[in-house]
Amino acid sequence: MKDIKVFGHLSPDTDATASAIVWSWFLTNHRNQPATAYVLGNPNNEALFVLNKWGFDVPPLLESISKEDLVTIVDTNNADELFANINDAEIVSIIDHHKLTGGLKTDSPREVVIQPYASTMTVMFNIMNLEPNELPKNIAGLMLSGILSDTLEFRSPTTTSDDEKLARELARALGININDYASAMFEAKSDISELSDAELIRMDSKVVEIKGESVRISVLETTNPQSVLDRRESLVQSIDEVCREDHVQHVFLFIVDILNQEAILLTHNDHVRDIAEQAFGVAIDGETVVLPGIVSRKKQIIPALSK
Predict the structure, then answer these.
(1) Is residue 149 part of a domain?
(2) CA–CA separation, 112 vs 106, rounded Å?
(3) Is residue 165 domain-shared with residue 250, that is, in the same domain?
(4) Which candidate among 25, 33, 75, 256 keeps its CA 20 to 30 Å from the CA of 291?
(5) 10 and 157 share a domain?
(6) What pLDDT score was predicted for residue 211?
(7) Nearest 5°: phi and psi at 45?
């Protein structure tokens, strides 16, 4: 049988990176379909920490696809977050937890599973028909990591009772203290010392259309927001460069303070400031604005900016 290439979105985070590995394992070992996990970019520091913790190498970088390829897409169904020619490949399946975006095409009916959970891992678990204690430890560890990352250890409003229940069952099977492990993950995510400003801006970001404009919404989740704010001046300069290079009109950069459950938005020009004031109902008179309770791009930030 031909090997299936499994991958998530560009700018791979923990959920996208780990989901590709978990699903390729499941296809190979439980569906007798040879599959290989890939990434479409450099995983962030939290994902690298998770891979090392559970004994995995970084999946190989997939630089292109063709009509000869069989692919499974995880943690996205948005064609704009994939290869420009994604529809040239034969899409075998899509496993995701985001809203239906459109743009992907198949030449025949295929497996498409999109369920309203905080993490792709919860969707996959529902499909697998396996119990947490039946999973290999390293696979269970990746699944736990994906849920903790995408829920910010259950702080995000995207968290469902099923996400939390599964995470606690996986942690019990692994003998892991969730709080201690999540803290270690978030500490790794917060280390930005070796990242350039452009890498920070693009690292956890999505390009969306808002009110007729192409906008990159960047989210930096951290337990140390000051380490990002200390780089504000150079970040603002890089934002202008990223806009030109990525052909977007604006970049909204949100620093999500995981522990205090709030976002800090860089209000670096009048346009961003005006949109933010309208979206979040705040008055802004400085270079940043604190948005209490805002932690989720999917459920809070994008809906507010789209109003």
Answers:
(1) yes
(2) 10
(3) no
(4) 75
(5) yes
(6) 84
(7) -65, -35
Query: Tokens 């920070």, residue?
Result: 200
Among candidate residues 170, 260, 178, the one with its CA nearest the CA of residue 224: 260
Q: What tokens appear for 150 in the block?
A: 């995408």
Q: Is residue 192 part of a domain?
A: no
Both tokens assigned to 91: 């899409």
Q: Answer whether 95's CB lies under 8 Å from 74's CB.
A: yes
CB-based contacts of 160-167 (< 8 A; 24+ apart in sequence): 160/116, 160/117, 160/118, 160/122, 162/117, 162/122, 163/117, 163/118, 163/119, 163/122, 166/121, 166/122, 166/125, 166/132
Q: How far apart are CA 142 and CA 148, in angstroms?
A: 10
Q: d(Cα 169, Cα 115) in Å, to the nearest integer?
A: 20
As given in the structure block, the two tokens for residue 47 are 């994902």
Q: 264: domain CATH number?
A: 3.10.310.20
Instruction: Name the β-bridge partners of 102.
Output: 78
Residue 295 CB-density burial (10 A; 0-12 exposed, 13-18 middle, 19+ buried): buried
Residue 245 binned pLDDT confidence (cut-offs 50, 70, 90)? very high
| DSSP helix/strand/coil, 1 | coil
> What does the block give as tokens for 96?
């995701």
Q: What is the largest CA-CA distance in the chain?
A: 61
Q: Which amino acid does the sequence have at 104?
A: L
Range of the domain at 80: 4-187
Task: Give the count of domains, the chain.
Answer: 2
Q: Are 258 and 279 in contact (CB under 8 A)?
A: no
| Global pTM value | 0.92
pLDDT one-digit tens code per residue, 1-22 = 899 999 999 989 999 999 999 9
C-alpha dihedral (9, 15, 18, 20), degrees to nearest 10? -40
Specify the length of the chain in residues: 307
**Is residue 92 one of the residues assigned to a domain?**
yes
